[in-house]
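Quick one, tokens below:
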């Protein structure tokens, strides 16, 4: 919410989505947000792909989406328990497809042009810092995604 308020005058008036932890978006909402965006930001617990139906994602066409930012792979005791229960019902192949590299490949095949994503699990604080750096660099300063990723790597 702080990020939305801080950058409200720049671009955030046009932002759509689901914010907070009140409810989980439906599959239809995920699809609508992904197909109608030029930039998609996911900031959430565990793996992004654990929130989306794989068969629906691979059938999507998302050429209007220039950038997807996945600030996922945050873990709490509750999220770890939830994902562990969910993974019991998945094949090893399905779980493997939810890994960061495989997720990027799938999103690329649907038409997404650029993807910024975590490669390993992280803390809530570290992802909050990444979101602040991304927002400042991309929205306020106007750096390119490449320049911004370079800053994040430092």
């Amino acid at each position: 919410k702080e990020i939305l308020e801080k950058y409200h005058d720049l671009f955030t008036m046009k932002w759509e989505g689901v914010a907070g932890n009140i409810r989980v978006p439906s599959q239809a909402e995920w699809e609508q947000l992904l197909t109608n965006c030029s930039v998609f930001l996911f900031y959430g617990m565990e793996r992004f792909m654990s929130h989306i139906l794989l068969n629906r994602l691979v059938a999507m066409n998302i050429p209007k989406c220039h950038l997807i930012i996945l600030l996922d792979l945050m873990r709490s005791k509750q999220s770890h328990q939830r994902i562990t229960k969910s993974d019991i019902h998945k094949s090893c192949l399905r779980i493997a497809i939810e890994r960061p590299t495989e997720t990027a490949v799938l999103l690329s095949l649907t038409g997404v042009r650029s993807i910024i994503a975590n490669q390993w699990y992280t803390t809530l604080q570290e992802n909050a810092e990444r979101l602040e750096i991304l927002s400042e660099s991309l929205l306020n300063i106007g750096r390119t995604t490449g320049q911004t990723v370079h800053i994040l790597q430092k």
